[in-house]
Amino acid sequence: MISRGKRQWLLLAAMMVAAGAVGAAPVAEPNTQVPAGSRHYAASSFPDRIVASPAQDAGSGFAVAWRTAPLPFVPRLELAIAGDSPDMGQVQQLTARSRALQSENGSSQHHRVDLTGLLPDTLYAYRVQGQDTWSAWHHFRTAASADQPLTLLYFGDTQNKNLSHVSRVIRQGWQTAPDARLALFAGDLVSGGDGQDDSEWGEWFAAAGALLPGMAVAPAAGNHEYFEEFEDTPQERRVLGGHWPVSFALPGNGAANATSTTYWFDYQAVRVVVLDGTSALDLGTARTQAKWLDGVLAASRQPWNIVVVHQPLYPLRAERDNTVLAEQVQPVLRRHHVDLVLQGHDHTYGRRGDDRGALPQYISSVAGPKQYRLSAQARATMQPVAEDTQLFQVLRIHQGRLHYEARTATGRLYDAFQISRDDAGKKQFSELREGRIGQRDCPRAASPKGRDDRCWE
Ligand SMILES: [Fe+2]
């Protein structure tokens, strides 16, 4: 005699098999949800792609970038100290600097306002102008003093299927750490180079949603932010794509020859330095960037120093070689006792310490759905590692302690450690193994497109 519950389960299983839901081969999906010919993400008179970034001193300023269609005037930003009344009170108006961009979605105008001389740990309200319209009022809190707690988010490569697959990771990250004030991105935000660049950027901004105007957003440039000019000719060279310099309002205090993609800022107890690995590896700026990094770290009086660079100094994937970057940068990281090096590029997860000690911790992660396979070398030298997993990271810094967590797209704990700092500045690294889920390996022989060097597209 079959029970009623079991009968219903068998019926459901039979329906799923009939519908092809069980055992169906994975299908490769397009890189965006934008159908061919659609101009869904074209600029209009309404302001969009609003994103805030930290000033060099995040306690006294931030900057905002946004986009409209070309306007017959220069738009403004309105700023006030946020309050609970709908009356915004005394509002300061600032005029933007604007730059044009041409894409497959037509003409757009990208605006930037730098807000300086602000009060620390203060919640500001701001809105940006379009034609005969304004954005919503957004809230942004300036950084507090170094002794106050800081929570920050870090995302590895987003790159592909930003709307369909990346957005869930960003939402989960924000749900896990609603107190996060700072968001670091490891680069390759979009894939690019496919004639759909602007739609990809549209999806990236849609995926990150309301996080972008209200948090200090600090991205590193990846190789996919570059394109090949004069491809397949002797003149072939890498050129930074047009979207990068106009889409973010970054501090612009970087290394010579890489000024729009390298920068640093202080956020409470942390100095964050962002490098451009592509420029270092392919455009010959590794030495210049290392020298600049040396100066920035030598001048740091911060208890914590974090470096963000797209290409990992210890590659996770076979046949990836970032030797020039490692040769130039690693001695500088060691000399100045950098705590963390946050990286991406290899579309897997892996963490390890330096050859000479626990710090810095080198972390490569991936937020997006494109998943590669770990090399035997990475499996032998890194712990933990992961394939076939979308991840985000939450870092909490307070009272001489840096607490790190890597969590999966569904919020499960994958990796954790802590660095403690005593009053003399001496640091102690400890693994936190409790509550971590087990190692995740790619369960399929090939990606949906049949590539055996990848796990997912
Ligand atoms: Fe990359």
Associated small molecules: fe (ii) ion
Major sheet description: 7 strands, mixed
Overall pLDDT level: 94
Measured by DSSP, the beta-strand proportion falls in: 25-35%
Counted by DSSP, the helix tally is 9
Query: What proportion of the residues is helical, as a percent range?
Result: 10-25%
Poorly predicted ranges = 16-22
Q: What structural category do the secondary elements indicate? A: alpha+beta
User: What is the spatial order of strands in the main beta sheet?
Assistant: 11-10-9-22-23-24-25
Task: Characterise the protein shown here.
The strands form six sheets. A seven-stranded mixed beta sheet has the order 11-10-9-22-23-24-25. Helix content is 19%, strand content 31%. It contains nine helices and 26 strands. The protein is globular and about 60 Å long. The model is unreliable at 16-22 (pLDDT under 50). It has helices at residues 4-18, 162-176, 197-208, 211-214, 243-247, 277-282, 286-298, 323-335, 376-381; strands at residues 48-54, 62-68, 76-81, 92-95, 97-103, 106-115, 123-128, 138-141, 150-155, 182-185, 216-219, 226-229, 237-240, 263-267, 270-274, 304-308, 340-343, 349-354, 357-364, 371-372, 385-386, 391-398, 401-408, 413-421, 427-431, 454-456. With 457 residues, the protein is of the alpha+beta class. The protein binds fe (ii) ion (FE2). Fe (ii) ion binds next to loops.
